[in-house]
Amino acid sequence: MHSNIKRKIGRHLHTEMLAPASASIPSVDSAATPAQLRRFFYAAYCDTPAPFRWLSAIRPYVCPYDKLVPFIRDDAEVLDVGCGAGSLLTLLAAMKKIRRGVGCDVMAPPLESARAAAQRVGAQGILTFEHVRSVAEAPEGPFDVVAMVDVLHHVPPGSRSDVFAAAAQRVKPGGIFLYKDMTARPGGRRLAHNIDDYIFTREWVEQVPEGAVETWAGDHRLALVHGEFIPRLIYGHELRVFQRLEH
């Protein structure tokens, strides 16, 4: 099943890649479907290396952007911790949803793709992307929204609470901490994620245990306002939305 899905999506993308890159960026809003987001990202990342473009285009079939966007406040200043190629911030900027976005990552090559995509969608004035050695080097803000999407499962277990804490400290009072990662629930969805990560990173990851982020959030005056398990294709996602207490 896993390989069949990959082949079908891959054939569709290969057909698109035969055509010259277009300067036209499809419009998107919060109701965009994965297919619409695929077309958006494929156009937005047409100036980037092929691997980043392909992965950015295919990701909406796996990552539930539609579940994340509603929790980003309009006109917000957003910090995306572990932003990779900047797909979330690029999408938010294209939607005219945010006033400013800062992405940071410990890997430099994806940030070049993020900057190229920001320029392609005309958002270079509001999006910046910074190479950091750790979350502690990220801009302090504080920010209206801090996002951490599919990051912690790549962090050694002994360092996860510290990474979470560094990100949480950058949320302003009343602001939102948006956390999404792959599910740790036993079963095929967890295994599918492990296999995918091993194929792309040669890393057999260890997911974040259930309940861990809720415990860490409580230590940093973050109250859980929304929790959801999201199945997508053969994968599973854990979404947690926290709000920093005012007092």
UniProtKB/TrEMBL annotation:
A GO molecular-function annotation: methyltransferase activity
Protein name: Methyltransferase domain-containing protein
PANTHER family for this protein: METHYLTRANSFERASE, UBIQUINONE BIOSYNTHESIS O-METHYLTRANSFERASE, MITOCHONDRIAL
UniProt entry keywords in alphabetical sequence: Methyltransferase, S-adenosyl-L-methionine, Transferase
GO biological process per UniProt: methylation
InterPro entries named among the record's database cross-references: SAM-dependent_MTases_sf
Gene3D superfamilies linked: Vaccinia Virus protein VP39
One Pfam family hit: Methyltransf_23
Domain of life: Bacteria
Keyword Methyltransferase attributed: yes
Keyword Ligase part of the UniProt annotation: no
